[in-house]
Amino acid sequence: MYIEMTDETGQLPDGIMDQSKKLLMFAADYMKLPEKKEMAVTFVDNQRSHELNLAYRKTDRPTDVISLEYKPDDEEFFFDEEMELPKELLEELDPFIGELYISIDKAKEQAKEYGHSIEREYGWLCVHGFLHINGYDHYTPKEEAEMFSLQEEILTAYGLTR
């Protein structure tokens, strides 16, 4: 998996970008995603998180992680309307799965609030966002149980425990 990482803040703690990339690669392998998949992660401050949250979710406050799942539009490939393409071909033509925006301010606040390391918090946010861009959600108790269970499974298997 190719992961583009950007720190818009210039304040990301040492090693976090490296850890985040390794953890996301591990999560992709764990979930058996095709190697050709691509995603982007951008570390932002609360002001930028607030702007993005308002623009994409119509929520007027900063948040810890914003996950923008990318779903390719079949129409952009200019095929005959009656032609149905196999999912595998569509995925190969467009490997981008989405992008995450992680607030470094929220990560600091939450690590302190939950009493765990900053590394654990960034790991949690990365995997949580990663699962969202791979179709997981937590709107219902059943979805939440499934997503949070898989999230903890990945973090534990990677060795990033509480």
Automatic annotation (TrEMBL):
Cofactor: Zn(2+)
Protein name in UniProt: Endoribonuclease YbeY
GO biological process: rRNA processing
The EC number(s) this enzyme carries: 3.1.-.-
Family: Belongs to the endoribonuclease YbeY family.
UniProt keyword annotation of Nuclease present: yes
Keyword Cytoplasm: yes
PROSITE patterns assigned to the protein according to its UniProt record, in alphabetical order: UPF0054
SUPFAM superfamilies: Metalloproteases ('zincins'), catalytic domain (SSF55486)
Binding site for Zn(2+): 128, 132, 138
Cellular localization per UniProt: Cytoplasm
Main localization (coarse): cytoplasm
Single annotated GO MF: RNA endonuclease activity
Keywords from the UniProt entry: Cytoplasm, Endonuclease, Hydrolase, Metal-binding, Nuclease, Ribosome biogenesis, rRNA processing, Zinc
GO CC annotations on file: cytoplasm
Broad class of enzyme this protein falls into: hydrolase
Cofactor: binding details: Binds 1 zinc ion.
InterPro entries recorded: MetalPrtase_cat_dom_sf_prd, YbeY, YbeY_CS
Function in brief: Single strand-specific metallo-endoribonuclease involved in late-stage 70S ribosome quality control and in maturation of the 3' terminus of the 16S rRNA.
Origin superkingdom: Bacteria
Cross-referenced Pfam families: YbeY
